[in-house]
Design brief:
Blueprint (H helix, E strand, L loop, with lengths): L1 E2 L4 H12 L5 E4 L7 H10 L4 E4 L5 H9 L6 E4 L6 H6 L1 H18 L5 E8 L23 H19 L3 E8 L1 E3 L18 H10 L5 E4 L11 E2 L1 E3 H16 L7 E6 L5 E2 H12 L5 E4 L14 H7 L7 H17 L3
Helix pairs in contact: 1-2, 1-8, 3-5, 5-6, 7-11, 9-11
Length: 337
């Protein structure tokens, strides 16, 4: 089961699962995705994934669905609200949608043997004291309700896995997913104004958006702009398959584990803009704005643990990530997607 499976990371993960022989059922309420993605997944894999339209906040509906799937072996849980800015404005929405849905899922699978992969985030680290940040770094006070839901989600899963026979959990703390599938048939499809850098860049480049704002150029970094660890969404999707396989093979030393999923290096906002221009030949219109509240200065991950224990590494460079994102943006325009 892939919750939020028509979303950005979810759709790419469904593709990887199907190409690895898994039978997938997608659960989504389409609040932040497009039903057309099902057709796109089928075009890539040749398999139409099973789809259930369901809001995971409906406790009874979740229980009924789980009971209707006696062969359910694994859950990859993406379904959640994900905008930092929106979470600050509407925290109750985020606690309802991100926490209650998780509790409903866990309650529904009680008494069953289930492998559970949780979509967590590097936001749990806040501004790290040491770079690259590894899984042993302290979890700091969250900068936003969104970040707090990821911290609380991890706590719920760890505590539940410790006392629940048959429940194995891997929380993947990923960094900044970007890019699109090499087919250009699926990619990031924001509803409304993009909250993330790369889709805003591609939409600006194709004429959907105006000027790009770089929030600050006076940070203590090489060019003054913030630094993040950008990872190709397909590499990220493959990490979820690796996590499922680790649990299936019984390789977990305990019932709850965390892994950083990133490239192990950082790129600044201005580097991303300059690389996009180089890769695509499109000149971007951007300006330097004020710093944005809640932004950390720099973060990138130590991914040694994922390499050694998941047998996973990120393979795509920033050039490839941005070229694929641009190919997807052009596909959207050409096909009125």
């Amino acid at each position: 089961m892939v919750t939020g499976g028509t979303g950005y990371i979810g759709a790419h993960t469904v593709v990887e699962l199907q190409q690895n022989g898994y039978q997938v059922v997608i659960i989504d309420n389409l609040s932040n995705s497009n039903i057309k993605i099902l057709r796109q997944i089928e075009s890539i894999t040749g398999i139409a994934p099973e789809f259930e339209m369901l809001d995971l906040r409906n406790r009874t509906a979740v229980s009924d669905l789980i009971n209707s799937l006696p062969d359910l072996e694994g859950i990859i849980h993406f379904a959640a609200s994900k905008s930092v800015a929106e979470s600050v404005k509407n925290p109750l929405l985020y606690y309802d949608n991100n926490i209650c849905t998780l509790v409903n899922l866990l309650d529904a699978v009680k008494g069953r043997s289930v492998n559970f992969v949780f979509s967590s985030s590097c936001t749990v680290y806040g501004e790290p004291d040491i770079l690259p940040v590894n899984e042993m770094a302290p979890v700091k006070t969250a900068e936003s309700p969104y970040g707090n839901t990821k911290q609380i989600g991890e706590e719920i899963l760890r505590e539940t896995a410790n006392v629940t026979d048959g429940l194995k959990v891997i929380a993947l703390r990923y960094f900044n997913p970007v890019g699109a599938h090499k087919s250009a048939l699926i990619g990031e499809l924001p509803i409304g104004v993009p909250q993330n850098l790369v889709p805003f860049i591609t939409q600006a480049a194709i004429g959907k958006r105006g000027e790009i704002t770089v929030y600050g150029d006076d940070y203590d970094t090489t060019d003054g702009s913030c630094i993040r660890d950008y990872i190709h969404v397909v590499d990220l999707a493959k990490a979820h398959v690796a996590a499922i396989k680790r649990m299936e093979k019984g390789k977990m030393p305990e019932n709850y584990e965390t892994f950083n999923i990133g490239t192990g290096k950082g790129n600044s906002v201005l580097e991303v803009i300059n690389t996009f221009e180089k890769v695509t030949g499109v000149k971007l219109n951007y300006r330097i704005g004020d710093r944005r509240a809640g932004d950390i200065v720099r973060i990138w991950g130590d991914v040694t643990k994922a390499k050694n224990e998941l047998n996973w590494i990120a393979r795509s460079a920033l050039d490839d990530m941005l070229a694929s994102a641009w190919a997807w943006e052009k596909y959207i325009k050409e096909n009125s997607f």
